[in-house]
Specification:
Layout (H helix, E strand, L loop, with lengths): L1 H16 L3 E10 L2 E9 L4 H8 L4 E11 L7 E15 L4 E7 L12 E5 L2 H8 L1 E9 L9 E9 L6 H7 L8 E8 L7
Antiparallel strand pairs: 1-2, 2-7, 3-4, 3-8, 4-5, 5-6, 8-9
């Protein structure tokens, strides 16, 4: 009886920890802009992880949108930015490569990107899940006395996959990865 209760508790804990979510979301408002820091708690879907180990890169998109709250009409969008991530596995060297770019990746090459290599899959996934002081808006687009809302979204971009995977991914939950969170921020406190 006791073993059964412990098994059910551990199963429930494992199931709850596999739900993707934005763990810590912090918005820092300074004179020169708005900065986002976040720690995601996501696990790559099993089908995507299998494809990675076969040498097929996975693409992710992090999007941040800043809106100004208005009582008389729809909220006004004041800033929007995206960050594109490409994770690939090199079977010959058994190394993971993470590329980060402010523009979408194209077939003509990677362009100007930040690249990192990792020995372990867990290290590469930890780097994907961590955002530190990402500038999402300039200071001049923020109203000094306004209330703003930051909408953050992170997803697996299946449109970048090879065509056979795109066709197989349609309607299958094994390819779904999406986390989002919104946070309201008020006007900054006056300097003392």
């Amino acid at each position: 009886m006791l073993w059964g209760c412990l098994f059910l508790a551990s199963t429930a804990l494992a199931a709850s920890s596999s739900v993707p979510e934005v763990g810590d979301l912090r918005i820092d408002r300074t004179e020169d802009g708005l900065y986002l820091s976040a720690n995601l708690q996501v696990a790559l879907p099993e089908l995507a992880e299998d494809a990675l180990y076969k040498g097929i890169p996975m693409y992710f998109v992090a999007e941040a949108q800043v809106t100004r709250d208005r009582w008389y009409w729809y909220d006004r969008q004041v800033a929007e930015t995206s960050r594109y991530l490409r994770l690939s596995y090199q079977p010959l060297t058994r190394r993971w490569r993470l590329n980060i770019s402010p523009v979408p990746f194209t077939n003509s090459g990677l362009g100007v990107v930040l690249g990192q290599t990792f020995d372990e899959y867990e290290d590469a996934m930890a780097a994907i899940q961590r955002f530190s002081r990402w500038k999402i808006a300039d200071g001049d687009v923020m109203d000094a006395d306004g209330v703003h809302t930051v909408h953050f979204r992170f997803r697996l971009d299946t449109s970048q996959l090879p065509r056979p995977f795109q066709i197989g991914a349609v309607g299958r939950t094994g390819w779904n990865l999406l986390v989002s969170r919104s946070q309201r921020i008020g006007a900054p406190e006056p300097a003392k």
